[in-house]
Design goal:
about 325 residues; mainly alpha; about 80% helix
């Protein structure tokens, strides 16, 4: 009975989604249009070059060289090998899901063990400075300085998550990590070809999920479910309706959540909300990571827990910092 129920529930969910699309077809089309526009204007131009260069650097052996320098610090802080330094640096500079893509690439090529890969997923996949400073700082709060502070908070929270979720690998895991010694850097021509192909496939998956969640948000709004849930939470929690709507939108899709905050004043609660959305990353990012790690055998549980913890820590840090600064 349970097995049959597990098979029927996804089918039932897909049928409900189909009928919801029929009812809110106009809003679904508008959501898809907005998602496509977002991909064309922001996602592809900002992510594709980073995906290409990060994959190229990984295949050419940058993590191995950087790892020799960063090994003591990475092991002491996060309980992983030095190769993870490349994933962390590229993750905090490239934006979602560059960090996860680098971790996946390093695991596929044998530069890190499975345990290290899953630990790195918890804190190396982060929002980049271009989005935080540009979209949140300038676009929402009309202040590059505010964006820089939010980016600093984001990095501090990533380090905190890495330290909180660190641990000592078992003997079996240490043995698995020995595969790093067998890694051979690819020739430049081969590495370039692979990086372009991998980056293109990844960005197509990312855009697909961005469009999907844009459509989902539009349909839920059309059916009144989005407004009803937001209104209920606002009344029960004594919160502003616009604040709650942005929280729910950001829970589903990061760009939509941050974009919906446009016009909000730069108060500590609003800045804490922005920090949470940036740290959590949204369900859309979670799905993007699933696409990136597909076929590797890596599990996404640590990434999910890490992103949620990152969001909470970021929100607390932002609330305290901006209150002290007198925003």
């Amino acid at each position: 009975m349970k097995r049959r129920l597990k098979l029927l529930l996804p089918i039932l969910g897909a049928l409900l989604a189909f009928f919801a699309l029929l009812i809110g077809s106009k809003e679904a089309v508008e959501g898809a249009r907005e998602g496509l526009s977002l991909c064309a204007r922001i996602i592809i131009p900002s992510l594709l070059p980073f995906l290409m260069i990060s994959s190229l650097l990984s295949q050419l052996g940058l993590p191995r060289y950087l790892g020799r320098l960063a090994a003591p610090l990475m092991k002491k802080l996060f309980g992983v090998g030095g190769n993870g330094a490349a994933a962390f640096v590229l993750g905090i500079t490239g934006g979602y899901p560059i960090g996860a893509s680098v971790v996946s690439e390093m695991y596929r090529t044998g530069q890190i063990s499975k345990d290290e890969a899953q630990r790195l997923l918890a804190f190396c996949n982060n929002s980049g400075p271009a989005f935080i400073i540009g979209a949140a700082g300038v676009g929402v709060f009309s202040s590059p300085a505010t964006g820089l502070l939010l980016y600093g908070i984001h990095i501090c929270a990533a380090v905190a998550v890495g330290m909180l979720m660190s641990g000592r690998p078992s003997a079996k895991e240490r043995k698995a990590g020995e595969v790093q010694a067998h890694f051979q850097a690819s020739r430049f021509a081969t590495a370039l070809s692979k990086s372009v192909r991998n980056a293109t496939n990844t960005v197509i998956n990312i855009c697909g999920f961005v469009i999907l969640f844009s459509v989902l948000t539009g349909v839920l709004d059309a059916l009144g479910m989005f407004s009803s849930v937001a209104g209920y939470i606002a009344v029960r929690g004594g919160l502003e309706l616009g604040w709650v709507r942005s929280l729910l939108a950001g829970f589903l899709e990061i760009s939509g959540g941050i974009g919906s905050m446009e016009g909000m004043p730069a108060t500590p609660p609003n800045l804490a909300l922005a920090a949470f959305i940036l740290g959590w990353g949204s369900l859309s990012v979670q799905c993007q990571v699933l696409a990136v790690i597909e076929g590797t055998g890596l599990k996404s549980a640590r990434h999910f827990a890490g992103r949620l913890l990152h969001g909470v820590i970021s929100a607390v840090l932002a609330l305290v910092l901006f209150t002290v600064l007198g925003f």
